[in-house]
Design goal:
single chain; alpha/beta; TIM Barrel; 2 domains; eight-stranded parallel β-sheet; two-stranded antiparallel ribbon; 16 helices; binds D-gluconic acid; binds manganese (II) ion
């Protein structure tokens, strides 16, 4: 089996992911920074499809117009030569001290306006590079203290900003689809719109909800102790899976951004199966980074590992879908009854009356075993490579 990543697999990395220098809250960087154009050539070499960026991953926050132009020329040259694309762009609304108490939800009107201005400019940059997905990760949109501001105000500010951005995108003809990225905490004590469900609910309150969807991240739902595969399924069900951040994470800890499949292999398998079976055709973005223990060689091992594991799990999903014993167990598990389905699929007075008159063998139905022990064991054996 050939698990070599190709551009058609749509694997992408952020400049900030393979470019991560290994800084953590307790320690200094352990690796030197990598130049953006160098990252582009390296990613293309290992089979990636695209590279994503925050405005300031490429253009320093204080760059002059001339510096911006020079950096952009070098970067676009690398894209052109390597064939890499930029499918997604985003704004850094968290590093600069001005955002210490939020960006779009900052209680200070001046800072909210600055955050909006910075995002408009970052959208211009992304559009120039061809991005069609715009990620909104509100890392600083949150609070440690609830005494200062009513959360309802914060949500109203947030809504105002997102509505503004959507109109701006349309007025410029950028064609962006905005992907909200929920996270429960870190860097804020509590972040607004902490999980996928919360973001889905909020989108329904926006002026142009069709322009907004989700960028769920494996680590983020897992930090909250939630089932990421279920969260992604809900986003797909709502037609809102616009992008995805793949990585791994031990449950209920700080954001670890581990290599995809490093920790929760079974969940990674069902995630890949879900993405592939559902026909998701967006980028498979790895928002993760090499362990702080690694040097540059380790960074590329990390990046190759993310893609290779995805492809191996994709092949496992194909085997799972074609395994006669597994499929027979699933068919038996999902007991079908056409006549009853016809009654319950849609309400009518007749259907309701027929249903009420129907007799059910309650005890017999309750007695039947689901067969899940066998099914789950076969899944494990398939993943362990003995099937
Ligand atoms: C995190 C987030 C970020 C975002 C990125 C793009 O937990 O730090 O996942 O990495 O994905 O800022 O918006
Ligand atoms: Mn994250
Ligand atoms: Mn992310």
């Amino acid at each position: 089996m050939n698990y070599t990543p190709q551009p058609q697999h749509k694997f992408t990395f952020g400049l900030w992911t393979v470019g991560n220098v290994g800084r953590d809250p307790f320690g200094l960087p352990t690796r030197p920074p990598l130049e953006p154009d160098y990252i582009v050539y390296k990613l293309a070499e290992i089979g990636a499809y695209g590279v994503n960026l925050h405005d300031n991953d490429l253009i320093p926050i204080d760059a002059t117009a001339a510096e911006r132009k020079k950096i952009l020329a070098r970067f676009t040259k690398a894209l052109k030569e390597s064939g890499l694309v930029v499918p997604m762009a985003t704004t850094n609304l968290f590093s600069d001290p001005i955002f210490k108490d939020g960006a779009f939800t900052n209680p200070n009107t001046k800072i909210r306006a600055y955050a909006l201005q910075k995002t408009l400019r970052a959208m211009d940059l992304g559009a120039e590079l061809g991005a069609k997905i715009y990620v909104l990760w509100g890392g600083r949109e949150g609070a440690e203290v609830d005494a200062g501001m009513n959360t309802l105000d914060a949500l109203a500010y947030y809504r105002e900003a997102l509505n503004f951005l959507a109109e701006y995108s349309e007025s410029q003809g950028y064609g962006y689809r905005f992907a909200l990225e929920p996270k429960p905490n870190e860097p804020r004590g509590d972040i607004y719109l902490p999980v996928v469900g919360a973001a889905l609910g909020f989108i329904a309150t926006l002026d142009k909800p069709h322009l907004f969807g989700l960028n769920p991240e494996f680590a983020h739902e897992t930090m909250a102790g939630l089932n990421f595969v279920h969260a992604v399924a809900q986003a797909i069900d709502a037609g809102k899976l616009f992008h995805i951040d793949l990585n791994d994470q031990k449950m209920s800890r700080f954001d670890q951004d581990l290599r995809f499949g490093a920790e929760n292999l079974k969940a990674a398998f069902f995630l890949v199966k879900l993405l592939e079976d559902s026909g998701y055709d967006g980028p498979r973005h790895f928002d993760a980074h090499a362990l702080r223990t690694e040097d540059e060689a380790g960074v590329w091992e990390f990046a190759k590992g993310c893609m290779r594991t995805y492809l191996i799990l994709k092949e496992k999903a194909r085997q799972f879908n074609q395994d006669p014993e597994i499929q027979a167990l699933i068919r038996a598990y999902k007991v079908e009854d056409k006549a009853l389905s016809a009654l319950t699929r849609k309400f009518s007075p007749q259907n309701a009356a027929a249903l009420k008159a129907r007799k059910f063998e309650r005890a017999a139905l309750a007695q039947r075993g689901a067969g899940l022990e066998r099914l789950d064991q076969l899944t494990v054996e398939l993943l362990l490579g003995v099937r």
